[in-house]
TrEMBL record:
Chief localization: membrane
Subcellular location as annotated: Membrane
Keyword Glycoprotein: yes
Species: Skeletonema marinoi
The name this protein goes by in its record: F-box domain-containing protein
GO cellular component, one term: membrane
């Protein structure tokens, strides 16, 4: 291969007779690359997307039959629930298993019904088959509690994401719903066992836990041992207790806390004074609080001295004006999203409250969902001189004449505004342009995921 040809200029052409891999040089000359040695194919494939690689393997070309070699997939994630050597009854030599696991960095478990052999996983962990793994993702994790206990002993895992679903669906009858709820509660023992074991994974820098049942915050003691965490997201815990266990996580840069989850709100509110336990977390740049009601300046004060650039307050009901005053002191903010739904008892802020945000001169994205009544109140935010994206939510779809009354003041208040999104519960999705301003209309209800950037 010509050393001057760039790997990024590789293109693929498929036809019925053959598969041709071409590299195109800057002067337009091309070279046909077929039947390359394995080491050269490996260099090429490392630059391909997963979909391009799949296309190569599906062409059926005899010249490419050796692309099934594990050598070519070591940079991709491995589905443990699909790999036969993790199951009893499948005869794989140790050499073959090592070839598939060599340099593998990500393991994924998606299928809760997969009967992965704990015995085989334990053997592979103990004998270094999986020492290259740095990233683990496990869905329906209560089904794989024993397997995860083995994987927790791996020496180099940096990132762990575990999810457990099974919430009742809307169309189930009462008996089925009660059965599903009982099933969720029955998972607690397995979930509590898993999170206790996670405390031994002291090499973790990223931890993401999402449960559809609610675990007591008293079980968060395992966090005390994870002092290297830089990213922490927990959803599905009763945070009316347990926040104090995060005091020593001084390396945290991203913190995402949800009190309860989408399906269940704990009986007791979070005591905002507990957030004072986080006052020493000085490296946080991204903060997401969900379900934290009655926030005031006390709850937000631990984060004022941080260099927070991204702040999300989601379904935080009855926040006070003092909360806005504290946010106004977070002068490094690039994005601020206050997200509520029509079901929430959201605070209503007037211009005399919103003016606290005028110190956020670096803010580029702002979301205000159901927290103001009159669009004219936004005219007080002339200090947001860098604002480019504004997301607003109203209780009713906006009529054309109302839209014009909103847009003109916004353009004069925010001179760099380039995108305006307007949400309502029954809104119809469409978009239009007003000069350089792009305007999007869409519906939004509790639980919806929306693009705010």
């Amino acid at each position: 291969m010509d050393d001057e040809l760039s790997i990024r200029d590789i293109s693929m052409n498929f036809d019925d007779d053959d598969t041709i891999i071409r590299t195109v040089s800057e002067d337009g000359d091309d070279a046909v690359l077929t039947r390359l040695p394995s080491h050269q194919w490996k260099e090429i494939i490392d630059f391909l997307t997963v979909e391009d690689f799949k296309a190569l393997r599906l062409t059926g070309s005899k010249a490419l039959h050796n692309l099934t070699d594990p050598l070519f997939t070591s940079h991709l994630q491995l589905r443990m629930d699909k790999a036969s050597f993790f199951f009893d009854g499948n005869n794989y030599s140790e050499q073959e298993a090592r070839r598939w696991l060599s340099k593998r960095t990500r393991l994924v478990i998606n299928d809760g019904n997969a009967n992965i052999s704990t015995r085989r996983v334990a053997y592979m962990v103990q004998n270094g088959f999986l020492d290259s793994v740095t990233d683990i993702i496990a869905a329906n994790c209560h089904c794989h509690s024993e397997v995860l206990q083995q994987l927790a002993m791996l020496p180099n895992v940096k990132s762990l994401k575990i999810l457990d679903s099974g919430a009742p669906s809307d169309d189930e009858d009462d008996e089925g719903e009660q059965s599903s709820i009982a099933s969720l509660d029955g998972n607690l023992d397995e979930l509590e066992t898993i999170i206790e074991v996670i405390g031994n994974m002291t090499s973790l820098t990223s931890l993401d836990i999402e449960f559809d049942t609610v675990v007591s915050g008293s079980r968060l003691t395992f966090l005390r041992r994870l002092v290297n965490l830089k990213y922490l997201r927990i959803r599905g815990f009763d945070l009316s207790e347990g926040i104090s266990n995060m005091t020593g996580l001084t390396k945290l840069e991203t913190l995402h806390l949800c009190h309860g989850n989408f399906y269940s709100s704990p009986n007791d509110d979070v005591n905002e004074k507990d957030l004072m336990f986080l006052v020493g977390l000085q490296h946080i740049t991204s903060l997401h609080l969900e379900g934290f009601d009655c926030l005031s300046g006390v709850g937000m004060s631990p984060f004022v001295s941080n260099s927070i650039t991204d702040l999300v307050l989601k379904h935080c009901e009855e926040s006070s004006e003092d909360c806005l005053s504290s946010i106004g002191r977070m002068t490094k903010l690039k994005s601020l999203h206050m997200i509520n739904s029509e079901c929430d008892d959201a605070p209503i802020f007037g211009s005399e409250d919103l003016h606290h945000l005028n110190t956020l001169s670096e803010l580029k994205a702002l979301s205000l969902f159901y927290v103001f009544e009159e669009p004219g109140d936004l005219s007080c935010l002339k200090g947001l001189t860098a604002l480019e994206i504004l997301n607003l939510a109203y209780e009713y779809p906006m009529e054309d004449e109302e839209l014009e009354e909103v847009i003109i003041p916004l353009l004069s208040t925010f001179p760099h505004l380039r995108k305006l999104r307007i949400f309502s519960p029954d809104g119809m999705a469409y978009s239009l342009n007003n000069g350089s301003l792009e305007i999007e209309f869409s519906s939004y209800s509790f639980g919806d995921l929306v693009d705010l950037h």
